[in-house]
Structure formats: structure tokens, C-alpha cells
Amino acid sequence: MTIFCSPFPDLPLSDQTITQRVFAGLGEDPGRVVLIDGPTGEALTVAGFIDRTRRLAGGLRALGIGPGDVVAIMAPNCPDFAVMFHAIALCGAAVTPVNVGYTRHELTQQLADSGARMVLAAAGLVPLIRSVQVETAVRFIASLGPCDGVPTLDDLMAAPLLAQVPVDVTRDVVALPYSSGTTGLPKGVRLSHRNLVANVDQVHVTQGIRPGDMSVAFLPFFHISGMNAMLNAFLARGAGLVTMPVFGLAAFLGHVERYRSRLIKIAPPVAVLLAKHPLVERHDLSSVRVLMSGAAPLSGELAAAVAARLGCIVTQGYGMTEMSPVSHVAPETDPRPDRIGYPVPNTLCRIVDPQTGDDLGPGQEGELWVKGPQVMLGYHNAPDATAAALTADGWLKTGDLAFCDADGQAVILDRLKELIKVGGFQVPPAEIEAALLAQPSVADAGVIGVPDGPLGEVPVAFVVARDGQVPDTAALARSLAARLASYKRPREIRVVAGIPKSAAGKILRRVLKAQYLEGASLVAGAGET
């Protein structure tokens, strides 16, 4: 068995709950601001955050919320997201974070499957939640702001809960985010206190968060990356966050400039904007020293373009909901092109041939398997999916095609299920997208495989024009011909208004493919290569 180990020493595993860990890391200055609401500038200090969390926890306990219960949070990024999350955790209950963009059907599925008894939500989402309540176990709804017929968070505040309700940190679920995982429909990912705390500590060793840092948080807290690798990790390090309910480039740049952010976590679509958008030149971003990209592979060329424009280090990490979420981070001292870096402390990985199950060595491509204290307990109500994703001895099969270089740094090529199989060759869409994004006229790109009789599938590319230009698709095709083998070149390149993405910044290839096959009018202008 070929195992790639972390170069970092193992960390002792804590017996703290996630809330105990965060409170302990806030520091000793009760007046230090830790959370700022981006749109309003309203601030929450260490003392204010702890007090508000404890009083909300007291109110939840008065309603009977405790171990074994699930409470949903459906809200955009805001300081009270942290208050709600930790109040629920302090009660010994579990949080299921819900995407604020969910449809009625998606919301019903998650609330029903999770068994949530209560929903804490943004006021504007309360009518949607009410409309599905009868189909779920939800018996109580509260709102972040005034909303007819439901209490607000302030209404729920009670005598503070001063001690953590006892839980088993290794087995009790504190977070139940939903993810499609390695395959299939969304499933609840059972994450324990140990999972979250271990990953917070792993992030601290590898990602360079410093006490006093004030970063900008637009990655959604309802996603595991925003919730644990940002919100909890920054708070537990004595740092702080400016929260953005939605991403807007002008507001983001303004926050970075005003609050002098040093370390910022982004996704590849934001890297594209930072590399190419003219608005960047109007802001003083000299405070930025490190950009950490995640959610999808970041090409070396795009990373270099951002680094050159901002004069900073651009690195990337890797993870998934099932790993709380981080398993790999590229070190700031050695951010090699295309690498997601080394395993974080206490973490092992393997590269496994998906056909034979054989372990592979450096430079060989296969499925990435990961083992560590951050790996989930399993999927909720889905034993077959759990058995398919987790081996008996604790290895998580990520479903990602990868290889490790001679030094043990990993490279993610693409999702195994998203590989385009062209005449027997396997083509990663991300490789073609990276080549397209290197072109000056392209602001964004997405690639899918479409059926083809003789070859099985062929790539089709979608590009978004930069600054209102209309890319010359024939010229793009010629540039790709100089970079890619013939079987990797798109059969067609279409110019579109936008590339559909998830809240975490991942390309929704199934949406692109459905629109392409149905002939939907997502095309702003098209050209055949």
C-alpha cells in the first residue's frame, strides 16, 4: 500500500466541543470586534458574541432543544449566523445549514430527511419555510428580523446557558450539511464535534490565519467551507470576519480596502475577476498578502495572473463536506502551480486505481482516498451510500481524479464522474477550462461532454466574454490546438452570458448539459470551432 503522509507533526485530538474550542480561541480582550456585518457596518465584539450565543442557547433550551434534535439555519452570511450555530451546538443539538437559494422541493427534501424540529431563518425566507412546514417535522420557526407571526431571535433570548450540554464529541453529530458527495442526490453528512474541532486545528497549522486578521467572508456559511474553514477557524484563532450576504465585486473590494484584509479565501470565479476586471485597479489592495482558493481546481496560469496583479501569494487547498472540509493545503512558502498541496496534520492519502483497486505511486493518476480525524461519521439515513464512500478501516473515497508528485504534493485533475470519455481517452473538463481562461478575451469558462456516436462523447465549451467583448471562437480554437491534444479540443465553443455555479463556486455541469441538450437559450452568441 502506497500512503502519502502529511509533512506536519500530528496534533493532539481535543475533547472540546466546537463551541468550547471557538470560545477558548477568541482571546482575552472582550471588546475586540470579531464580526462585522458588511452592508451595515454593525459590529459584534468577543463579549457580545459570547453573551448573545449563551442567551439564545438558553432560549432554545427553554423550548426543549437538546441532544438528538436538529435545528435548521436558512440565512445568508451575517454575524448572527455564528450566534445561531453556536447556540444550537451549546445545547447539544445539531445544525443543518440550508442553502438560501433552495427551491421549495429542495427545502422540503432537506428538512424532511434531516428531521429538523426548528428553523432559524432570514425574514424573507419565512413564507417559503411555512409553505413546506406541513410536509416536515418542523414545529417552530424564528426569524432574524421582524416577520409577522413568528418570533425573532431577540424574542427567544433568555437566561444564558453557561455550560455546554454534555455530548460525546466523537460520536454525537453537531453539523448535518447536505452534499451530493461522491455520487447521487444530496445526502446529510454527519459531522461530529471531533471532526470540526480537528479540522479547525488542522487549518490553523496550514493556512496562516493570524490573531487580529480581519478577512472578508463571502463564501456562504451554509456551506461547510464557509461554516468551518472560515467562520469557526477564524474565530477560534482570535481573528475576525466581515460578512457579505451575497458577493458583489465592488463591495468585496471596498471591504478588503477598508479593513486591510491580509488573508482571503476565494473560489476560482473570484480569481478570474481579480485577474481581469478593471474595477480592481480602483482599490488599494496592498494589504492582501495571501489568497487561498478552494471549491474547484485553480489553474497555475490563473493563479500566476492574480498573484502578479495583486502582488500577493496565491495558493490553494482541497476538501469536501465529508472532510469537515479540508484535507490538503498548499503551503504559502511553496505554492506550486496546480498543486493543492500536502495532507494537513493527522491526515493520510492514497491514489487508487478506480478499476483495479490497486494503490498507485507518485505521478500516477487515480482516485484520491483520504483518512483522518476530520472524515465524517457517515451519511444520514443512507447506509448504502456510507458503505460506498467509506471503507471499513476509515478511508474516504473522494471521487476525485488526482496524482501526487514525488514530494507528496497532490494535483486534482477532475471529478471521476465528470471525466469526458472521448474514444477511450479520459479528458478532464478543468484542463480545457484552464486553457480557455488563459485567453485575454475570456472572463469565465465551462466545459461539458456531449454524446457522440463514434467517440462516445466530445467536449463542448462555453465561454463568457471579458468586458463585453465577443471572443473570436475560431481564434480560441486555434489557441487550444497549440495547447491540447486533438481529442481534448472542444467540438464547439459557445459564447454565453454566464456559467451556472453552485453557492460554493463549483460549475453546475449538469445544468449546462441539460440546457445544451434541450437547446435552451443560454447562448448570447455562438460560434463553431
What is the CATH topology classification name of the largest domain?
A: Rossmann fold
Give the full name of the CATH homologous superfamily of the largest domain.
Answer: ANL, N-terminal domain
Number of discrete helical segments? 15
Gap from first CA to last CA: 45 Å
Major sheet characteristics = 5 strands, antiparallel
Q: Structural class given helices, strands, pairing?
A: alpha/beta
CATH architecture of the largest domain: 3-Layer(aba) Sandwich
Mean pLDDT: 91
Any idea of the CATH class of the largest domain?
Answer: Alpha Beta
Count the domains.
Answer: 2
Strand order of the largest sheet: 1-18-19-21-22
Proportion of beta-strand residues: 15-25%
Shape: globular
Count of DSSP strands: 28
Low-confidence stretches: 520-529
The helix fraction, in percent, is 25-40%
Radius of gyration: 23 Å
In summary, what is this structure?
The chain is of the alpha/beta class and 529 residues long. It has 15 helices and 28 strands.
How would you describe this structure to a colleague?
The chain has 529 residues and is of the alpha/beta class. It has 2 domains: 15-404, 3-Layer(aba) Sandwich (Rossmann fold), CATH 3.40.50; 419-527, ANL, C-terminal domain (GMP Synthetase, Chain A, domain 3). 29% of the residues lie in helices and 25% in strands. The chain has a 5-stranded antiparallel β-sheet with strand order 1-18-19-21-22. A 5-stranded mixed β-sheet has the order 13-14-15-16-17. Strands 3-2-12-11 form a 4-stranded mixed β-sheet, sandwiched between helices. A hairpin with a 7-residue loop joins β9 (178-179) and β10 (187-192). Residues 520-529 have low confidence and may be disordered.
